[in-house]
Amino acid sequence: MAARRRRSPVFRPQEKGLRKVFGELEAAVMEWLWAHGAGTVGDVYQALAGQRELAYTTVKTVMERLAAKGYLRCDKRQRAYLYTPVQSREAFLRQVGKAVVGGLLRDFGAPLAAHLLEETVRQCDLETLERLQALIEARRAAQEPGQ
């Protein structure tokens, strides 16, 4: 079962956590797999069935769909398929953040950028402020005539 090309995630700002980009069961499956590295449908079913009423076939379908969307890699091991996240949780969150912020900046431009920077400056520590200052200075230097 080969994974297809990963699609850009749908973003639901009103939801909490990973439910902003996954359905409730998809998020639970991904969290379990990120925590454990890999697992079969049976592994995930056993872990999640203790938390909610759930059918084995539902978990199987969700994991197959996550693989088809490009979030999981599926390898046949003996009699079961072993599912592994294609990327770490952190890499996935960076990808989602980049897609969401990039889309917002394309649509809302300078006012959104100014707002994001104001909020970031208000909430971050001195080390982050210094990193931001260095990024701003590097960008300005690249825009100076004769560069």
In short:
It contains five helices and two strands; from the N terminus they run αααββαα. The protein is mainly alpha-helical and 147 residues long. It has a two-stranded antiparallel sheet.
Can you offer a commentary on this structure?
By secondary structure, this protein is mainly alpha-helical. The chain has 2 domains: 70 residues, Arc Repressor Mutant, subunit A (Orthogonal Bundle); 54 residues. Helices cover 60% and strands 8% of the residues. It has 5 helices and 2 strands. Strand 1 and strand 2 form a beta hairpin. Helix 2 crosses helix 3. It is elongated and about 65 Å long. The model has no long low-confidence stretch (mean pLDDT 89).
Could you name the key traits of this structure?
mainly alpha; Arc Repressor Mutant, subunit A; two-stranded antiparallel sheet; 5 helices; 2 strands; 60% helix
**Mean pLDDT, all residues:** 89
Structural class: mainly alpha
Weakly predicted, low-confidence segments: none
Helical proportion, percent range: 55-70%
Q: Give the CATH architecture of the largest domain.
A: Orthogonal Bundle
* Rounded radius of gyration (Å): 20 Å
Portion in strands: 5-15%
Instruction: Report the major sheet.
Output: 2 strands, antiparallel
How many beta strands in the DSSP annotation? 2
Distance between the termini: 50 Å
Q: For this structure, what is the CATH homologous superfamily of the largest domain?
A: Winged helix-like DNA-binding domain superfamily/Winged helix DNA-binding domain
Number of helices: 5
Strand order of the largest sheet: 1-2
Number of domains: 2
General form: elongated
In CATH, the topology of the largest domain is named Arc Repressor Mutant, subunit A
In N-to-C order, the SSE pattern is: HHHEEHH
